[in-house]
């Protein structure tokens, strides 16, 4: 039996057509069940929060998983194999703020984000020490009420920024969903994992042909 950890929410919705194409669609209520059989007797799914997917896969509670590059960058991806870019849930990780936001001289830049590690690394690479304010959602509000000078957040269409009067200031990284694999399972369950990796690769190539 193989266990695949799926990221609940937007990524799961965008993953369903691929799962369908390779015969791994969930065979159960994905809105309520946390562990669901798939249409294939030898693969089951875990439906979990995206931020938890790297942990389940790293510890081997799941053999492989599907998760956004943003979460992998924040988690640190060295403990997992990342063999395939699925090309879904594409967006960009950006620094955004009110138009005309300038580097501040009198105090450290305050950055609101749910990605403290990525943010710290990004500004440190530029030789900047910033004050990071960890939020769990609705980052766009922070500059409007002067909780922060700028935000680090995902931008897809840009509509959320625009609706809140914010603009992109800097591009940090392109983001899409990745297939990740537990390192030990890649050895002990090699043939089975190889088979499914090949199916995912084919489906991804077909979808983007
Ligand atoms: P948009 O208005 O299309 O630019 O989408 C921006 C909002 O959707 C922000 O609140 C983002 O955090 C969120 N978002 C955009 N793309 C993704 C994604 N691939 N995964 C999770 N959240 C996303």
TrEMBL record:
Name of this protein: ATP phosphoribosyltransferase
CDD domains, alphabetized: PBP2_HisGs (cd13595)
Assembly description: Heteromultimer composed of HisG and HisZ subunits.
Subcellular location: Cytoplasm
GO MF terms, alphabetically ordered: ATP phosphoribosyltransferase activity
Occurrences of domain ATP phosphoribosyltransferase catalytic (ranges): 49-201
Primary location group: cytoplasm
Catalytic activity entry: 1-(5-phospho-beta-D-ribosyl)-ATP + diphosphate = 5-phospho-alpha-D-ribose 1-diphosphate + ATP
This protein's pathway: Amino-acid biosynthesis; L-histidine biosynthesis; L-histidine from 5-phospho-alpha-D-ribose 1-diphosphate: step 1/9
Function: Catalyzes the condensation of ATP and 5-phosphoribose 1-diphosphate to form N'-(5'-phosphoribosyl)-ATP (PR-ATP). Has a crucial role in the pathway because the rate of histidine biosynthesis seems to be controlled primarily by regulation of HisG enzymatic activity.
Enzyme class: transferase
Keywords assigned: Amino-acid biosynthesis, ATP-binding, Cytoplasm, Glycosyltransferase, Histidine biosynthesis, Nucleotide-binding, Transferase
Enzyme Commission designation: 2.4.2.17
Notes concerning its domains: Lacks the C-terminal regulatory region which is replaced by HisZ.
Organism annotation: Banduia mediterranea
One Pfam short name: HisG
Family matches, as Gene3D superfamilies: Periplasmic binding protein-like II
Family recorded in the similarity comment: Belongs to the ATP phosphoribosyltransferase family. Short subfamily.
């Amino acid at each position: 039996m193989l266990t695949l950890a799926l990221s609940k929410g937007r990524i799961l919705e965008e993953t369903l057509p691929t799962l369908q194409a390779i015969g791994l669609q969930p065979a159960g209520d994905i809105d309520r069940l946390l562990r669901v059989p798939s249409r294939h007797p030898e693969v089951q799914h875990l439906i979990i929060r995206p931020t938890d997917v790297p942990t389940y896969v790293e510890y081997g509670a799941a053999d492989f998983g599907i998760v956004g590059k943003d979460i992998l960058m924040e988690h640190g991806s060295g403990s997992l194999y990342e063999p395939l870019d699925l090309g879904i849930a594409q967006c960009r990780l950006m620094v955004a703020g009110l138009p005309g936001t300038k580097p501040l001289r009198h105090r450290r830049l305050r950055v609101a984000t749910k990605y403290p590690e990525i943010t710290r690394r990004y500004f440190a690479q530029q030789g900047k020490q910033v004050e990071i304010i960890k939020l769990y959602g609705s980052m766009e509000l922070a500059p409007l009420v002067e909780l922060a000078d700028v935000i680090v957040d995902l931008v897809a269409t840009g509509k959320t920024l625009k609706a809140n009067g914010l603009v992109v200031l800097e591009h940090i990284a392109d983001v899409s969903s990745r297939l990740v694999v537990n390192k030990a399972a890649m050895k002990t369950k090699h043939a089975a994992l190889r088979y499914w990796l090949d199916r995912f690769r084919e489906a991804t190539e077909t979808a983007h042909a």
